[in-house]
């Protein structure tokens, strides 16, 4: 009951916000939604299936470039937005075959390297526009309706978040989801229960890449511009920080983490933009904050924000009932 | 049921298992015993596919399986209860057992993501069957608890329920009695006897000789990676080679 009320409340606020926010606040709201979409995938991959990726930004970029290239080539934006997660997932399947033979730190570094390689390729190649990137990407449109306003993109983004959360929720509480959670504990025992471990790792990698690709597709239409500089390695780290802070292995935790970190970074950015601050202040501050927040959460709230708060609430409720 | 022919495996030039041959007949309970380092675990892993053999063949139900991945052997009907606690963390007891039905069910990512009616029906059947298995091993009242909080004896019972859910043709038990106290051990032995009475073929790898001789129809003794005796428990216990290599150690 409490869950249902909380869910409805969150949905109502999510739907009401685009109407009341101004354009600069809406920009934050949209970027927050996009980050949440990617982070749900990271939480699925790391929290449930036990695989690490320090390269989710690469799939975000692949989604963005795919949608941008198709739109610039005259393909209807809807088709581009559908293609973005599909191409991201397909890339993950191809890259994942050699990569997912690695585990733990090795996998983390390999995915990080993948993103670096991809970024330098995008910066060199002709058809991706080199370092300048792709510009003048048309607005997103469905038939004759064109998403001209920021609030339209906000609705599109949060519809995407809802879709990604629903898919993740359904997968987790099912046969394939149990298989993923099983192989996170022991690949040996999972295989002995008849689970094709390699194939499942590949599919969950592709699924999390699809979420990132979808976010990337929306991003390119919203900003109208993509370049290698839009997808620094820092954003991949940011997704992991968001997932860990919110609580790995919880779907809502990913959204909570994305919200907390986005708001924190926004606050710091306005702090760093104060007169008298050096020009490198924003990047130094955000790196420092990621590090501090991550260490703090791991030390004091090892299961993340959401499980910690939920646990405290349910304990309080129990003690009230006991009285 | 299972035929192992001339199987060897070495680690860094040292044979852990050397030229081992054995057969397990339909409906038989076969025990493999041997002192520490005799190669029991290696042989177990070779049979289940978690290690690849250097030489030799393994056939299961008349089919060569020595090149098959572990999950393929599992789907042919090999189920394992591991010695080390291999219950899946972050899942309830029931969910753990439901994993055992993986090989017998089909619903994939797409039908799960879309919650197709077929998937819902599958899920209900899987949960019902898992509950039956939990009932059988005496864990029904724990079904909704987190699996990793169970005591070790119940974790092993949980693994047994998971293995049985796969409807195995051959059940492999790796040191099932280790770490169990008197009463837990007794309950486990009773369960194995019940399964044997039901006609299930069982391979029991065990350190505890008394446990094996009580349950097994036939005992294979390994020492230094080789089979030194193979026969009914009473006969094997009297074998001078076995006494020297294994039982003799204890005295």
Automatic annotation (TrEMBL), chain A:
<dbReference type="GO" id="GO:0005886">
    <property type="term" value="C:plasma membrane"/>
</dbReference>
<protein>
    <submittedName>
        <fullName>Branched-chain amino acid transport system permease protein</fullName>
    </submittedName>
</protein>
<feature type="transmembrane region" description="Helical">
    <location>
        <begin position="285"/>
        <end position="313"/>
    </location>
</feature>
<feature type="transmembrane region" description="Helical">
    <location>
        <begin position="152"/>
        <end position="172"/>
    </location>
</feature>
<dbReference type="InterPro" id="IPR001851">
    <property type="entry name" value="ABC_transp_permease"/>
</dbReference>
<feature type="transmembrane region" description="Helical">
    <location>
        <begin position="203"/>
        <end position="227"/>
    </location>
</feature>
<dbReference type="GO" id="GO:0015658">
    <property type="term" value="F:branched-chain amino acid transmembrane transporter activity"/>
</dbReference>
<keyword id="KW-0812">Transmembrane</keyword>
<feature type="transmembrane region" description="Helical">
    <location>
        <begin position="58"/>
        <end position="75"/>
    </location>
</feature>
<feature type="transmembrane region" description="Helical">
    <location>
        <begin position="107"/>
        <end position="125"/>
    </location>
</feature>
<keyword id="KW-1133">Transmembrane helix</keyword>
<dbReference type="Pfam" id="PF02653">
    <property type="entry name" value="BPD_transp_2"/>
</dbReference>
<keyword id="KW-0472">Membrane</keyword>
<feature type="transmembrane region" description="Helical">
    <location>
        <begin position="239"/>
        <end position="265"/>
    </location>
</feature>
<dbReference type="InterPro" id="IPR043428">
    <property type="entry name" value="LivM-like"/>
</dbReference>
<feature type="transmembrane region" description="Helical">
    <location>
        <begin position="26"/>
        <end position="46"/>
    </location>
</feature>
<feature type="transmembrane region" description="Helical">
    <location>
        <begin position="81"/>
        <end position="100"/>
    </location>
</feature>
<keyword id="KW-1003">Cell membrane</keyword>
Automatic annotation (TrEMBL), chain B:
<keyword id="KW-0067">ATP-binding</keyword>
<keyword id="KW-0547">Nucleotide-binding</keyword>
<dbReference type="InterPro" id="IPR032823">
    <property type="entry name" value="BCA_ABC_TP_C"/>
</dbReference>
<dbReference type="InterPro" id="IPR051120">
    <property type="entry name" value="ABC_AA/LPS_Transport"/>
</dbReference>
<dbReference type="GO" id="GO:0005524">
    <property type="term" value="F:ATP binding"/>
</dbReference>
<dbReference type="GO" id="GO:0005886">
    <property type="term" value="C:plasma membrane"/>
</dbReference>
<dbReference type="GO" id="GO:0016887">
    <property type="term" value="F:ATP hydrolysis activity"/>
</dbReference>
<keyword id="KW-0813">Transport</keyword>
<dbReference type="InterPro" id="IPR027417">
    <property type="entry name" value="P-loop_NTPase"/>
</dbReference>
<dbReference type="Pfam" id="PF00005">
    <property type="entry name" value="ABC_tran"/>
</dbReference>
<dbReference type="InterPro" id="IPR003439">
    <property type="entry name" value="ABC_transporter-like_ATP-bd"/>
</dbReference>
<protein>
    <submittedName>
        <fullName>Branched-chain amino acid transport system ATP-binding protein</fullName>
    </submittedName>
</protein>
<dbReference type="InterPro" id="IPR003593">
    <property type="entry name" value="AAA+_ATPase"/>
</dbReference>
<feature type="domain" description="ABC transporter">
    <location>
        <begin position="2"/>
        <end position="249"/>
    </location>
</feature>
<dbReference type="Pfam" id="PF12399">
    <property type="entry name" value="BCA_ABC_TP_C"/>
</dbReference>
